[in-house]
Amino acid sequence: MTTKLVIGLDGHGSGDRALAYGKGMADLIGDCELLIVYVIEWSPYSFQTAEENAKRHKRREEEISTATERVVAPAIQRLEAAGIKARGMVRHGDVASILNAVSLEENAQQIIVSRSSEGGFTKRLFGSSTANLVMSSSVPVTVVG
Amino acid sequence: MTFISRVLLSFAALLPFAGSAMAQDAAMTLDQKVNEVFANFTGPFVGLIFAPLPGTSFPWIVLWLVVAATIFTFYFAFVQLRFFGHAISLVKGDYSDPNDAGEVSHFQALATALSGTVGLGNIAGVAVAVGIGGPGATFWMILAGLMGMASKFTECTLGVKYRNEYPDGTVSGGPMYYMSKGFKELGLPGGKFLAVLFSIFCILGALGGGNMFQANQAHAQISGIVGDYPGWITGVIFAVIVFSVIVGGIKSIANVTEKVVPFMGILYVGAAIVILIVNYDKIGWAFGQIFEGAFTGLGVAGGFVGALIQGFKRAAFSNEAGVGSAAIAHSAVKTKEPITEGFVSLLEPLIDTVIICTMTALVITISGQLIVDPASGNYVLNEAGNAIATIGDTSGVALTSAAFGSSISWFPYVLALAVVLFAFSTMISWSYYGLKAWTYLFGEGKIAELTFKIIFCIFIVIGAAASLGPVIDFSDAAIFAMAVVNITALYFMMKIVRKELHSYSARLKNGEIRRFKH
Q1: Cβ-nearest to B102 among A40, A54, A101
Q2: Cα–Cα distance for residue pair B258/B424, rounded to 1 Å
Q3: Predicted TM-score of the model (pTM)
Q4: Per the count of CB atoms within 10 A, which of A6, B16, B129, B475 is most buried?
């Protein structure tokens, strides 16, 4: 059975460490597929103007295409060039919930993320996405420092 | 409307005077000129919309809205009660496909529509209703709010069903689209004519109630705190800020407003709840006043009919049910079932009128600002005999402010800030409604859009500079003219909504429509 590992990227340099770790794990495991997931932070309970609502679908498509082009596709290219099986996806929502949900959907054995790049007030108030993931995940999580 | 003009004008007259006399004279001349030209220009239109029914003082437009809400309530067999729980589930996202994450949610569409309606109507309008019609007006206001839920349901379902979805993914919806497309589908003539007429009134409504009235009240609030100064100065400042948002695309201002306004709304309701808790022993008495006053008048101007007119009028002014504006706001939601947005939209009059307006009315009643004759237990009328006498002779926003201030001394400052923010948020919402009507008439395009946005900003200056009477009259007349056209179309199209309702109910019952696991 193919081992599946979910790698959560946040578009920052720290994501490269998670990717490198995942690649190393895939090399060791052998029959392994890496699933690259980029989550665009979004809440259905946020407030928007009527004009933003009217253009939301268009913006969403743009956000997905930008994330795919800049983050997910280059990561997959690098992995495939190294002979590792990889897929990617871009989702909207809460980072911790989405990574957990995708792992359950895909029967992944592990989630790999880098240490949080968030800081300041948001982190103090709500905690980081990484910390939330570690607290709530249903599958094992590896946090790469 | 003359009642409202008078009471709010008297409030404006109480505002302290400050500033250089010379600059004031020059500015007043400009303000007066603007006012005179404006009043002469809009007078006949206003007279027509607010004409009373023959032999009564009851404006026909209020009856038009109430009758429509009643018909929709019965036609859809009390949809507002039967699907209330389902509406809550939809807003919570229980029926939203997780794959649609990132699209406009039911909650977001509702919140956007609410930011266009929650505002001065809930603060100033209710005070006017209670000040003139007594606490009994609240009963009729609640009833009108509950019935208005069915009007919202009808128009918002159609708004989503007949919206335009463009190849680039943007959407445009609203009464003008369901009138033209829906009438064509039904094989009826005149859809395009109604759509054009609605668009014209919507543009006027956006410039009036959605703009000038807001600018005017924001100026009244600011000058009430910092001292009197020419209205055009507030107008120019507001116009620059609104211009930077709607033309310059400075999202940060809109974002801040969109986040602060709901917070202010919650703070307002929270403060009202605190006052009610502190005065819990008077809540039973206040409800007694509301029910008794609804049928006896308790000595208010015009008796119980006066209470009824005021209650119906302010509810209609506040929640805009049947006006058609909500159909524009709700049309951007992501859903495969247009009727789901209809269910969600029926929460709007509930939140706006039944909850927030009732809170205001209860606080005013409990605060003891309305003077009661201890001997008869009836309310004492003011010298003019057209409203209940109040402590400090306040009315409108000032009455609400005094009522909250009697329990929480610093709350009037928060209220002043809330009024300004609500005004700004309503302007942003209505600039969009007006723009949609404008582009329906003149086509989508950068030049057409920019033209409307510039006109919109100019009217902010006029609204802040003109005196309140003509501004309120024109604002309300323009918005209610929209309702005349919109409700006419809804009568022809309500069978489409009923078909959707039956189909959806059946599929919900047989389990075809299911909750998603989140």
Answers
A1: A40
A2: 10
A3: 0.86
A4: B129
The DSSP call for residue B378 is P
User: Which two structure tokens, joined as six digits, stand for B198?
Assistant: 């609605």
Lookup: tokens for B465: 């500079």
Domain map (residue ranges) of chain B? 2-508
Query: Does B429 sit within 8 Å of A61, measured CB to CB?
Result: no
- Give the nearest partner residue to A53 out of B102, B262, B332, using CB atoms: B332
CB count in 10 Å sphere of residue B59: 21
Q: How far apart are CA A130 and CA A118, in angstroms?
A: 9
* Full domain range(s) for residue A58: 3-117+130-144
CATH class of B2-508: mainly alpha
Question: ipTM score of the complex?
Answer: 0.87
Contact yes or no for A58 and B169 at CB 8 A: yes
pLDDT in tens, A88-142: 999 999 989 999 999 999 999 999 998 765 555 555 555 578 888 888 889 999 9
- Residue A20 within a domain: yes
Taking CB atoms and an 8 Å cutoff, what residues of chain B touch A44? 93, 96, 101, 105, 107-108
Confidence at B27, pLDDT banded by 50, 70, 90: low
A45 Cβ under 8 Å from any chain B Cβ: yes
> Is the per-residue pLDDT at B7 higher than 80?
no
CA distances to B375, B439, B446, B449 from B443, rounded to whole Å, are: 65, 5, 10, 9
* pLDDT value at residue A119: 57
Interface-testing mutation among B344, B432, B439, B518, with chain A (most A C-beta atoms within 10 A):
B432
Question: How many structural domains comprise chain A?
Answer: 1
Q: What is the CATH number of the domain that holds A85?
A: 3.40.50.620
Q: How does pLDDT run across A24-59, given as a tens digit for each residue?
A: 999 999 899 999 999 998 999 888 888 889 899 999
CB B420 within 8 A of CB B217: no
CB contact under 8 A, B332 and A50: yes
pLDDT at site B1: 36
